[in-house]
Write a sequence for this structure.
């Protein structure tokens, strides 16, 4: 869908660019282009994944607040604007497209040595989700507890010694 | 370092026990004296503004290190109110890392601070240990060999952060217990420690120590007003592999801001130089006592024999 729209936009621009003033926001994605819902579960293990209601969140935040400079809208963060003021819509707008799941792997860390690299501190995927969601939820009184968004799995209960894996009662006083 | 070494040489000359000199010549001891850390080592940057106190790191550490079952589940947040001997929770032989909560009057939310071994660049525990139980690995971890530990607790006193603790499984088998940066199971294979991997907020960033300092500086520079302009651990006690960013001054979140900029051991080396000497002459003394005692007995025996004759 997006590509087709883009082609039409481009065709229009090419055809009438000379006489029409193309509004800059015409180059950015619209909320209607966005999916209704996104299943976020690629990292799910200790907790179940999250069914993210994208349509509902569009009412709380602008595209840029989560998608940064990739959806073509004007970036708010002055640090991003230094390079991305006019960088337009990116080919990749998904979280996974930029935020790595192997953020602390040897390969990733070695790649950070490139002297010309500005993004030396881009959060990994898990960090990107939680940093963005939780900080906004804090200011908008959204849910912030782990279990407000996730359900703990069996392996989660084992990891946290909770639920069916709670510490044995008799030992609790022994400390 | 040069200066202190020569001061030590002076000391050697001054105390001039031949036994002491024998120990000083020991290669490993020499290495410990001149050790200046591994600038290429790994570290972790802890950002207190990101931590939400979920205790996932504590749970992950417990499982990775095979530590005993906790008294309370790791999703029980009442532990933040626990006070023992007037202090918040500390790391011990059952928990190599713990998270504490700090109410900050000027903030509308608390701050959380994760505590574990800071894996100093020039570790006081290492330099203080006269049986060389500790090693700073090129990867950045400060690990220990519990087999050679004699349980003297010098490292406990030397550590500026009160980290090493002991497990006395038997009176003759003391074991140092502390965070080892998941060296055996992860770090030596280039993997991040379990706590870092578990943290949902990326409050813990694993990387080369030098890169982490640049990241920390970038965060401070590009979000003016968010952080105090200091990376705790960049220079403290000669630098630590685990470093911290905070939005309030570090003393408000339980950090000791009076630790020296110099490695701790520079100031106590004189004392510690004596320890190996005492230990080295100890066998000699002991043998001496033994000889004296047995000689007395022999004399006695001799006398008794003579009397019988
Ligand atoms: S924090 Fe303490 S135990 Fe850890 S390396 Fe430094 S001196 Fe040693
Ligand atoms: S896992 Fe991360 S966010 Fe959670 S308490 Fe530990 S450091 Fe803080």
């Amino acid at each position: 869908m997006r590509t087709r729209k883009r082609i039409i936009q481009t065709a229009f621009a090419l055809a009438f660019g000379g006489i029409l003033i193309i509004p800059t926001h015409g180059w950015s994605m619209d909320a209607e282009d966005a999916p209704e819902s996104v299943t976020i579960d690629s990292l799910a293990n200790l907790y179940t994944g999250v069914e993210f209601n994208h349509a509902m969140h569009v009412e709380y935040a602008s595209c840029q607040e989560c998608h940064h400079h990739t959806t073509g809208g004007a970036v708010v963060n002055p640090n991003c604007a230094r390079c991305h003021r006019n960088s337009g819509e990116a080919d990749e707008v998904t979280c996974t497209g930029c935020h790595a799941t192997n953020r602390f792997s040897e390969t990733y860390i070695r790649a950070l040595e490139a002297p010309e690299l500005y993004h030396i501190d881009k959060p990994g995927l898990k960090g990107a989700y939680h940093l963005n969601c939780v900080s906004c939820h804090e200011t908008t009184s959204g849910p912030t507890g782990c279990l407000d968004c996730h359900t703990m799995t069996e392996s989660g209960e084992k990891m946290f010694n909770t639920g069916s894996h709670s510490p044995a009662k008799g030992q609790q006083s022994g400390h | 370092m040069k200066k202190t070494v020569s001061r030590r040489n002076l000391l050697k000359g001054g105390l001039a026990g031949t036994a002491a000199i024998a120990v000083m010549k020991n290669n490993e001891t020499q290495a410990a004296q001149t050790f200046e850390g591994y600038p290429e080592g790994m570290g972790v940057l802890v950002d207190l503004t990101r931590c939400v106190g979920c205790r996932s790191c504590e749970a992950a550490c417990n499982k990775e290190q095979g530590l005993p079952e906790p008294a309370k589940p790791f999703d029980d947040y009442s532990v933040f109110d626990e006070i023992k001997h007037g202090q918040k929770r500390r790391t011990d032989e059952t928990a190599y890392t713990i998270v504490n909560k700090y109410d900050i009057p000027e903030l509308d939310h608390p701050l959380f601070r994760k505590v574990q071994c800071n894996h100093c660049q020039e570790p006081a525990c290492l330099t203080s240990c006269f049986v060389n139980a500790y090693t700073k690995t090129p990867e950045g971890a400060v690990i220990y060999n519990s087999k050679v530990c004699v349980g003297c607790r010098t490292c406990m006193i030397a550590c500026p952060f009160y980290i090493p603790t002991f497990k006395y499984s038997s009176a003759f088998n003391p074991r140092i217990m502390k965070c080892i940066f998941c060296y055996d199971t992860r770090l030596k294979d280039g993997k991040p420690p379990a706590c870092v991997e578990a943290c949902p907020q990326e409050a813990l960033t694993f990387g080369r120590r030098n890169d982490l300092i640049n990241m920390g500086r970038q965060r401070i520079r590009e979000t003016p007003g968010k952080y105090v302009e200091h990376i705790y651990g960049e220079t403290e006690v000669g630098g630590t592999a685990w470093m911290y960013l905070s939005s309030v001054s570090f003393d408000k979140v339980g950090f000791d801001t009076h630790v020296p900029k110099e490695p701790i051991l520079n100031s106590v080396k004189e004392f510690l130089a004596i320890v190996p000497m005492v230990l080295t002459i100890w066998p000699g003394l002991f043998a001496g006592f033994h000889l004296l005692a047995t000689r007395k007995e022999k004399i006695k025996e001799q006398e008794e024999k003579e009397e019988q004759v």
Remarks:
- Residues B 117-120, 123-125, 142, 159, 161, 163-164, 178 surround iron/sulfur cluster (ligand 1) (CB under 6 Å).
- Chain A is about 40% helix and 5% strand.
- The CA atoms of residues 46 and 159 of chain A lie 8 Å apart.
